[in-house]
Structure formats: structure tokens, C-alpha cells
Amino acid sequence: MMATSSVVRTSPDTCVITCPRCEQSTPTPIAQIWLSQESLHPGACGFILRLVRMDQRRFPRKPVELSGALLDVKTWRPVDSTR
Fold it and tell me: Global pTM?
């Protein structure tokens, strides 16, 4: 299984990489990610990132759980979700 690192863009030319092992965040120039052929060391633990996938969002996604019920639009009665 490949480790996944969190990369969040903080400005047009800077991002923050979070190490998947020690969870330390490091500000990094985006040019260093795109132009560098070398591996990245985002944390002090020495973990090496060989592949970086950058999400172009301004803020990280947050997990969401929404409660609700599925209703039939014709009858407005709850739909049996076990069908």
C-alpha cells in the first residue's frame, strides 16, 4: 500500500505537505514539487515521498455525515433502502 500525503495549496506559489508518518507539516514551493526529479522529505522522521498528488483546493476536505431519509417524490413516503 502506498502512503498518501496531504498537500494543501496555501498561496499561488506555495503549498503545505503533511508527512503521512509523523504528521508534521512543511511549507514547500510548488515549483519544487513540479520541477524536482528528487524525492521529498516532508517531515523530520526521514520518510521519503516518491509520488506526490496535489489537490488544487484552497482548503482541505473535511469528512461529513448527513442524516436524512430517502423519500419517494410521488407519495412523499420513505423508500425502503433494503430493496
Answer: 0.52
